[in-house]
Structure formats: structure tokens, C-alpha cells
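Open question from group meeting: does this chain pack into something compact, or does most of it stay loose? Before anyone orders reagents, we agreed to write out a predicted structure and look at it together. Recording both the input and the output here so the notebook holds the full record.
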Amino acid sequence: MSDALEKRIERALGTPVSTIESLEGGMIGGAYRVDLADGRRRVAKVGDTPLTVEAFMLRYLADHSDLPVPAVHHATDDLLVLEYVEGTSEITPAVERDLADHLARLHDVTAGAVGFPRDTLDGPLEQPNPRTDSWIDFYREHRLERATDGAREHGPLTGALAERLAALSTDLDGLLREPDRPALIHGDVWRTNLLARNGRIVAFLDPATYYAHPEIELAYVDWTETGGDPFFDRYRERRGIADGFFETRRDVYVLHPLLVHVRLFGEDYLEDLDRTLDRLGY
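C-alpha cells returned:
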């Protein structure tokens, strides 16, 4: 594998490779630190999903926001070469506050409709992003109902849980709010996708980006325990958090990643899904 990958990288970059070392993290494919003979260092990613999708999202974030993302040096469907960024995924209160500052600025980038210029990926799964005027309609059809169907057809989701989810889906107009304007989100903010150094985030990795209600990003940060009080206090100072988010809307939004995890990782997430529906009264 390393010999073949070395040759592919050398052809892509036109520079001999000195060493290749496997990196930890990532749900699909593999990631490698690559030291080049000319002294430069890169990250190479390989996988079964088309890596040009990740390259598109990284370039979009670089072009449309000041979010720090690694530069793309080469992109084909089966090989992605990125800038190497030195940092760790350790989350401290200072990092949480810096995360809030970054996301507040990112969420100030808005569009006239929900969606994205192209469909993308959420891990190994297709993520449809059709331009849609209503955020609630978009979340219902292209996130909640789609994830429910996937967890039912390809995972262990039971019929009883699917019926409860369907009942909640019909009530979304009373549970969620439309944004003033859809905001650009990273889409997969958790500690493994962050690199920090000296209390600052130096890179956001592996996006699943689109224009959405920014609360869905906040819900994911909370669900993954990536941000606590330091994050939410700072974000509230920067952009505000509307009443009812923590009481209701947070749980409505975490249903989507829960269903994705049920599909991909199995029954361990069914209990959390059941408790979340209980809290919502379904």
C-alpha cells in the first residue's frame, strides 16, 4: 500500500517522497503524513468515497469564509493531498471560546436559500443539498426522513421508533424555527475534526458543509461534547441563541446524527434515540 501510494503522490506532486506515516482518526479511508524530499510536508487521504467532494467543500469554505481549513494541493476521487497543519485535538476552555468566535463568523456568511451548490457527503453517506426556500421542509425531507429511511433499511431501527419519528416529522413546523437567512455551516464540528495550538484553532477538517439554520451546528457541538459553557457563553455574546434551543430544538436536531450513527454503528445508539424522543414527547 505505501509503495503504491508513494508513487501516486510523486506523480501528483512531481516531487519524490521521503517518508509516509499513517495518521489516526477518520471514519472512512486512510490518512497519511507525507514528508517530501524537498522538505515540505503534506497529508494524503485515500478512500472509497469520491474525495473531490471534500476538496470542493474545503475550497468553498476557503473562498467564502475566513474559517481556517487546509489548502488543497491535489484532488482526484481516490487521492486527496492537503496542507499539513500542526496541532492537536485537545479542547480547552480557550479553544472552546475560539471555536465560538470562528463559528459565529462562519454563520454570518448567509445565502438566499437553504442547500448548497452541489450534493456532498456526511462521512460515507450521500448528503443531498437541493436549493430549498424553507429550512423546516429541507430538514424534514433531506435530513430527518432520509436518515430515518436509511436507518430502517440499512440499520437496526425498529418500526416502533420509525413511527415515533414520523409523528415528530409531521409536527416540525411547531418545533423548529426558520432562520432569518440560511447560514453557512461546517457541518461536522467535533474534536477529531479540529486542530488547535496555543489555545487557538488552526484548522477545521472533514467538512459536511451547506447553508442551514446555524442551530443545527450548535446542537451537534453540544451532542458531541465538543463545546460546553465556555463555547456557548461566547457564541451567545457574538450572535445570540434564541429561547427554546436547549429545551427543544437541540434534541430535534440531534435526531439526525443519532440516526446516522444507528445506521452506521448499530444498536448502541438506539437507547439514546429513544431517550431523545421521550424528552420531546414522542
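Observations to bring back to the group:
The chain has a mean pLDDT of 96.
The chain has two domains: 2-83, 93-280.
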